[in-house]
């Protein structure tokens, strides 16, 4: 029968005599899938369901059909009475309390409510004594990860890789941080022959939840692209590789017919325009010159950001544009083939030594790789701590003064001379770095050295000389050289030519593979220079009354900032962005791989069997020690021998590696940043361990 008309008196309510009630999510709150509705139901008031007092019936519907049905025992019922509510125990029932037609009617109501509010809804509902549905409350499902703007409608399916998660940066990127990466990727895309707007970036770069998502649908639907993606992820981010293997089984992601002549033409065009094969050969022929060219390119590009302090704001913004767009492809395409040649030699060694060397022996040859700016940074910080330890006044200051007070003293140049000089020297070389350093909106160590001061204080307490990181690094180098000598001799015993090739490949690998960390180091230096220029423009806008704070520039993209310099008022936009950015900082879970229907693809993986905690081997060895879970490296302390357990790591974390006895990460693969540095330090490491923290 039709429901009675609502009261015309504004503010009055009609009490629903609920015979059955529950909750309806118009999207699956666990997987994120937007096209699946979830209903929990129980007899009586919905309080029994939302309070967890009852084991309710559970239904999931998709396309108007019930695709999952789990019937609860419903042993508790809550009813209304004159005193309020009462809870009574009832007989267990194996019968569903809501019929399929009623479920569909509830879902239809939910879809109307979702369309009205423009977002998936968490709805409380009831069926009255005539089994008529009533909506009691609706509110947004706040835990769902937002979809990128190019998400295709059903039944098409797109696959997005979360760039933030892949980089170990779980916090959101500022809008200007996103802008910088759009400029970087767009510059590379144009260099290899694809169209991309100067500031917008290529179409595959998307943003959702203030994080970068890469649309890799075309890649995983191409036969060669799928093999390449899975191979790369297996080495760089093993957990994402497992997710992708499961995802590509979806019928909507079936391989597409490939026109190989077209693919070959695109590849040849890219190789010709980038001269990548020639650069790789040059690196193999003369590694030292290749490394020197990479560093020279970085310095040349930084020089484009040098403008007079009193230069007009537009000139400073043009310098940012020139650094991040015009010169970046040349820097990137000089550096990548350089370390790529070293990794190629590693693969050559593996093939030449197949059956002659174990995986552990090959891994030992990667210990203490030279020319790695990240390990150089960590060892320089350790050396600074030894200088401070040798000076009583500096050591006392570091032990007894707060990190914040030392940072203030450093800026005021009032610290003991040795401590002041040690900090200044390190920050001169590595002050552009920081935690979450891929975001131009994040402060650098040169601006706020508190994290560096904490690392120095941690090192100061290292009182076991045999565990000194520089000595361990030297022992790692000696181990690598001894292992290489043994493997070369083993190869020579199987043929003189093979021995010569193995020796040559090892030499080139050691000379070039450490440069793997250089591209990111160069990018971070560019971002630090760009950050200083953008902050100076922000200061101008603050003086003009168009920004409340100079750092508000990072809540804008570059065209918006150019408009603000020209006279537009960006403050309303900044307030809106700041609010959404702050909300996203509170998000505790990020999808590694997101599907366009909202599914967090990791939720599709089968549950692990047994109670073990497993991951991907990244650095060989065996260690027993206290597990130290660290979610944020700022102010963290790792005692010698403790096992660092972290969500992920970037170079800002690696000062902790010097005292850690082992490493466990939720993210990463055998060639990810944390794994590479762990191997160089000889720290046993397992990565890709889901929920390790």
Low-pLDDT segments, ≥5 res:
4-9
- Mean pLDDT comes to 90
Give the oligomeric state: single chain
Biggest sheet character: 6 strands, antiparallel
How would you explain this protein's 3D organization?
- It is a single chain.
- With 693 residues, the chain is an alpha+beta fold.
- The chain is 46% helix and 13% strand.
- The strands form four sheets. It has a six-stranded antiparallel beta sheet. A five-stranded mixed beta sheet has the order 13-17-16-15-14, with helices on one face. Strands 10-11-9-12 form a four-stranded antiparallel beta sheet.
Which helices and strands appear, and what pairs or packs with what?
Elements: E1 20-25, E2 36-43, H1 47-50, E3 57-62, E4 65-70, E5 76-81, E6 84-89, H2 100-117, E7 121-127, E8 133-140, E9 159-162, H3 163-166, H4 175-191, E10 205-208, E11 211-215, H5 217-220, H6 223-236, H7 238-247, H8 260-274, H9 276-285, H10 287-303, H11 313-326, H12 328-352, H13 359-364, H14 373-389, H15 392-400, H16 403-412, H17 417-430, H18 450-460, H19 469-492, H20 496-512, H21 518-543, H22 558-566, H23 571-585, E12 593-595, E13 616-619, E14 627-629, E15 643-646, E16 662-665, H24 673-681, E17 685-687
Parallel strand pairs: 14-15, 15-16, 16-17
Antiparallel strand pairs: 1-2, 1-7, 2-3, 3-4, 5-6, 7-8, 9-11, 9-12, 10-11, 13-17
